[in-house]
Design goal:
The complex is a heterodimer of chains A (428) and B (604). Chain A is mainly alpha-helical. Chain A contains 18 helices and 3 strands. Chain A is globular, with a radius of gyration of 23 Å. Chain B has 604 residues and is α+β, with helices and mostly antiparallel strands. In chain B, the strands form 7 sheets. In chain B, strands 2, 3, 4, 5, 10, 18 and 19 form a 7-stranded mixed beta sheet that branches. A 5-stranded antiparallel beta sheet of chain B has the order 12-11-23-22-21, sandwiched between helices. The chains are: A mainly alpha (428), B alpha+beta (604). The interface between A and B is large, with 62 and 51 residues.
Chain lengths: 428, 604
């Protein structure tokens, strides 16, 4: 225990606590108009207490021990995800919560951490076989169980976080660059079609173009692929068809996915994409939230409207003020000063995480730290990007800042893992 | 440290790849930071403005339009409270708005077309969705009650009491008061001060003194939340009610004029010869200005606009007619003052004169002639030949000079809209317009108010008043004073003398004698009022459009005139037969001299 206290990462802990306290202040402000602001603050504080306790619990056990049980953690998380599909309560159209009376609990929060641990363990075990495609497929298949189960709830934004975690951990774990490139090609291919389609619809292009866009898209991409191959051959690189075949395969796979995505895209998702491309098209519908939060952030100016004085907040123009849109509340009432304090605190969090990954005693620790850092970064970037209007609308919370008990507890557990790795960095 | 070593087969180390990841993450965070700086610092002011517009709604409180009173402070135009329906779309989408509007239209028993028009108005830009839009006004109390009951199911709908115009004198003073209507889109762009839904004076006093009557709208800046629920009032600007206008009109005279011109297409104007203030003005056909207010009788508006009788036309100012024999007084004054005749000059009337080498005959209305006549006889019997001779002696230039001195051929500048200026023709005018020379025949015609001459009834009234007051040309006016809502006088209108005519007293008494005799035993004897000395002159104006226009001008009492009266009946016939009896009835009513059988004995 002495060792633990001596090597405890006080900077990380203070940083996280500070973010949580700022969060509490603005959760209070966001809920002022409802009249029971203390209710939310009390619940969040309780979650913080539980979170710190969980963190200490996680720290107290050597993380090397976890490695032995990653498979079981993961299995347990998957079981929870299956159970929530049957016994979960429906909130806003998705069955992602266990209702436990006073507390609600979201198993996907636990699943993320379990998946990170599982992947870290998997990669460490197979560290000399990362070149093999079969390994990639095994890991991918296992990770996608979670993604599919969460998509079934359906909770698109919670599922999406698995993809950057998976990719970055595989990358850091030594996946050949070629496969990473393939993955990038695949995602560009598969998301290109729906986005371009919507872009054309917004800009009122000719009907012919919109109607036959799928064929045109597929044709252009295939022609381009073949052209690139000939170009490379022309430059006399030693690229045989055998080597290039996999590129063509990935392109084809991407095309098939893109067609199925654009076919199965639900109306509200299509709307969100439209709004992302141009929020003023639908100022009272889907674009309303984005527009109002942008107004709130902008109107904060340098020093803000004053704590509890934000008109956009206190009059209820910002939607989901205490959860996904809390940064808008903070920016309106605290201005650029508070926005930058928060961004700075997040930067410290990420830097600490990366330092921990860099100095960890073993591969498992490093990879776990990478997974956690990427998870936090993904949430921060996606949430802030959405609020400021440079990324599509996705319902993701800001770690430690947004209201949400199970999210806070899960994040504290993740911090606990980071601490654990940090404390035992020299223990060979 | 293992992190620095190569990753198995790869040339890269874990640290290297971690650097790439780190760079990627901070690159994105950097973009976001720049975006936040841009939002909060560069565009901050703009967003703060939008944010204020978002939460602040202006609830306009219309100013009450000023009232209009007559000379004796009797209310001519008043305001009454009425129910109006207003709507703000808030955060509703098009479907919901359509729903609400259709429901309101059903409750008000309006058709769907009306609903669609309103719907198109509600398509507004973000941040302005809370402003109130008037969707119906002047609904009945019953409808208002029904609507008020359903308010919980009709989000965004407000039923409010607003003042509307009541024209107490109704049709009788329609050409004085005019009316108000909601400003059209063209008018909104023409007058930048107007807001959508504001009313605009469209005729008469309502148009002339629109700005004085309108006042300044007030309103409150209200902070609302995202559901348009009022949170607090930030600022209230009390509306400044419009000032009221007191007219020179006298209710008794106006009623008399309006009652007796009724049924004839024509004009009656009563003017105070001592001030030039209008005592009454009636133009028939008239219209009821109240129909423009109550939305229910909208069907009669097209009739008003299209009817051949032009009820919206104020004949007193807009109608141009040949004055006929009424004009003989101009010729008489011109003759007397230029010295071509004296009051005692005798001219023989044998029923006609002959002009030029073809001996073209210009007849007197009395075929057999009047014999030897002096000025007063000539006026009393309206002898044409006498004035033909005077006119010929004067020549057209002198005649025109005097016509212009009396105010003919230009606007009187009365404070009522759309006045015409009439025409006093001369040689150059005829050359320019008709490409013909001026003949003596034209002079002859002009000397009895025929030919190319056009006058408006208000010019004739100004002229009559100038005779009555011995040569003072007043600018006719209808505004007596402007008072504010508390009754304090803001402006007192002083009678404006345009010019004083330099005519000798003898010449005036000569013409007045002729006018008095005209009523006593001459052509105007139908206008004789028992117990009142009236001086008058008839006129029967031939015109190419149809039957003769019947004119009668007079002032009473003759010795100390209190009123100058002009009656004109379009295509009515002879002035003595048609216009004089109307004037007589008006005078009887104005001076309370109703002829009763027993009073006959009191004839002196």
């Amino acid at each position: 225990m002495k060792l633990v206290l001596k090597k405890f990462d006080w900077i990380l802990f203070a940083d996280v606590l500070l973010i949580t306290f700022i969060g509490l202040l603005f959760i209070f402000s966001a809920q002022l108009r409802t009249g029971n602001a203390m209710f939310y603050v009390a619940k969040q504080s309780t979650a913080l207490g539980i979170g710190i306790a969980a963190m200490l619990l996680i720290i107290s056990i050597r993380y090397e021990l976890y490695r032995e049980y990653t498979k079981y953690f993961y299995f347990f998380a998957v079981m929870l995800l299956i159970a929530v599909l049957f016994f979960g309560s429906r909130v806003r159209g998705s069955k992602s919560w266990f209702d436990l009376g006073r507390f609600a609990f979201q198993p996907s929060e636990i699943a993320k951490i379990a998946a990170i641990l599982y992947l870290a363990g998997f990669i460490e075990k197979n560290r000399y076989h990362m070149k093999k495609t079969s390994q990639l497929f095994t890991a991918g298949m296992n990770a996608s169980i979670c993604i599919i189960l969460i998509l079934l709830e359906p909770d698109f934004s919670s599922a999406s976080v698995f993809i950057p975690i998976f990719l970055s951990m595989m990358y850091a774990g030594g996946l050949p660059k070629r496969i990473i490139n393939f993955a990038i090609i695949f995602f560009v291919m598969s998301l290109g079609l729906p986005f371009l389609e919507i872009y054309l619809t917004i800009n009122n292009s000719s009907r012919f173009l919109i109607k036959n866009f799928k064929i045109i898209y597929v044709g252009t991409v295939l022609l381009f692929t073949i052209f690139v191959w000939f170009f490379i051959k022309f430059l006399r690189f030693k690229v045989t068809f055998k080597k290039y075949k996999s590129v063509i395969l990935i392109v084809l796979l991407g095309l098939i996915t893109s067609i199925s995505i654009s076919g199965y895209l639900k109306d509200y998702q299509r709307k969100r994409m439209i709004v992302f491309l141009d929020p003023s098209l639908d100022p009272l519908g889907s674009g309303y939230n984005i527009l109002q939060s942008r107004i709130a952030i902008g109107s904060g100016q340098l020093s803000g409207r004053g704590i509890f004085q934000g008109t956009q907040t206190q009059l209820g123009f910002i939607p989901d003020q205490h959860t996904d849109y809390i940064f808008a509340v903070l920016s309106e009432e605290g201005g650029l000063v508070f926005s930058f304090i928060v961004i700075l605190l997040y930067t410290v969090l990420i830097i600490r995480g990366i330092i921990i990954a860099r100095n960890a005693a073993d591969r498992f620790g490093s990879l776990t730290a990478v997974g956690i850092v990427v998870m936090f970064s993904y949430y921060i970037i996606l949430n802030l990007g959405m609020l400021t209007g440079i990324m599509p609308v996705a319902g993701v919370p800001l770690p430690f800042l947004s209201y949400g008990g199970s999210s806070l507890i899960a994040n504290m557990i993740a911090i606990g893992l980071l601490m654990n790795i940090h404390i035992r960095r020299y223990a060979y | 440290m293992w992190q620095g070593e190569n990753l198995g087969y790869s040339a890269e180390s874990f640290s290297g790849r971690l650097n790439v990841l780190q760079f990627f993450i901070f690159f994105l965070l950097g973009i976001i930071s720049f975006r936040i700086i841009s939002l909060q610092l560069i565009k901050g002011g703009q967003y703060r403005k939008i944010s204020d517009e978002n939460r602040i709604v202006i609830y306009p409180q219309p100013a009450t339009r000023g009232k209009i009173f007559d000379k004796n402070m009797d209310v001519v135009v008043d305001n009454k409270p009425s129910f109006a329906v207003l709507f703000s779309r808030q955060t509703m989408d098009d479907e919901e708005v359509k729903n609400v509007i259709t429901k309101v239209a059903r409750l008000l028993q309006r058709n769907d077309e009306v609903a669609l028009t309103i719907l198109s108005k509600t398509k507004t830009i973000p941040g302005k969705n809370f402003s109130l839009l008037k969707i119906a006004e002047n609904i009945s109390k019953y409808q208002a009650m029904r609507l008020a009951e359903k308010i919980p199911q009709l989000p965004g709908v407000v039923v409010r009491i607003e003042p509307v115009r009541v024209y107490k004198w109704g049709a009788s003073a329609s050409h004085i008061t005019g009316y108000v209507r909601e400003a059209s889109l063209d008018e909104l762009s023409e007058y930048p001060k107007l807001k959508a839904g504001d009313v605009l004076g469209k005729n008469g006093i309502e148009k002339q003194y629109d700005e004085i009557l309108r006042g300044i709208d007030g309103g409150s800046q209200v902070e609302v939340n995202s559901r348009a629920v009022q949170k607090r009032i930030l600022e209230t600007v009390e509306p400044v009610d419009g000032d009221s206008i007191v007219l020179t009109i006298d209710k008794k005279i106006q009623t008399a004029l309006s009652n007796h011109i009724q049924g004839h297409i024509g004009v009656a104007i009563a003017i105070d010869p001592n001030t030039g203030g209008l005592l009454g003005l009636a133009s028939y056909p008239e219209y009821n200005p109240n129909i423009f207010i109550s939305g229910l009788k909208n069907w009669s508006i097209p009739y008003l606009l299209r009817s051949e009788k032009k009820p919206l036309w104020n004949r007193a100012l807009q109608g141009q007619y040949p004055p006929g024999s009424v004009y003989k007084m101009v010729t008489a004054f011109a003759g007397l003052e230029s010295g071509v005749i004296t009051s005692q000059t005798v001219i023989n009337c044998k029923g006609f004169i002959e002009l030029g080498k073809y001996k073209q005959r210009f007849r007197c209305w009395a075929r057999e002639g009047h014999g030897d006549v002096r000025l007063s006889d000539a006026l009393a019997h309206s002898c044409d030949v006498y004035f033909y001779e005077v006119g010929l002696k004067l020549g057209p230039t002198k005649l025109n000079e005097w016509a212009e001195k009396f105010g003919f051929g230009k606007k009187t500048d009365i404070d009522l809209p759309s006045e015409e200026k009439g025409l006093t023709p001369d040689k150059s005018w005829k050359k320019a317009k008709l490409h013909q020379d001026w003949y003596d025949g034209d002079t002859v015609n002009m000397s009895v108010g025929q030919g190319y001459i056009w006058t408006t009834p208000i010019q004739i009234a100004q002229f009559t008043s100038a005779i009555a007051n011995d040569g003072i040309i007043f600018q006719p006016h209808i505004l007596k004073k402007i008072i504010d809502a508390q009754g304090n006088v803001r402006f007192e209108n002083v009678p404006k003398i345009i010019r004083k005519l330099d005519i000798t007293a003898e010449n005036f008494s000569a013409v007045k004698k002729g006018m008095m005799e005209a009523v006593r035993y001459g052509t105007g004897k139908n206008a004789k009022v028992v117990g009142l000395s009236v001086s008058g002159k008839t006129g029967t104006a031939q015109n190419p459009q149809g039957g003769d226009h019947a004119w009668f001008v007079c002032f009473a009492p003759s010795e100390k005139p209190k009123i100058a009266l002009v009656v004109m009946v379009e295509h009515g016939g002879g002035g003595g037969e048609v216009a004089a009896p109307i004037a007589k009835r008006m005078l009887e009513e104005i001076f309370d001299k109703k002829s009763k059988p027993q009073m006959d004995t009191e004839l002196h």
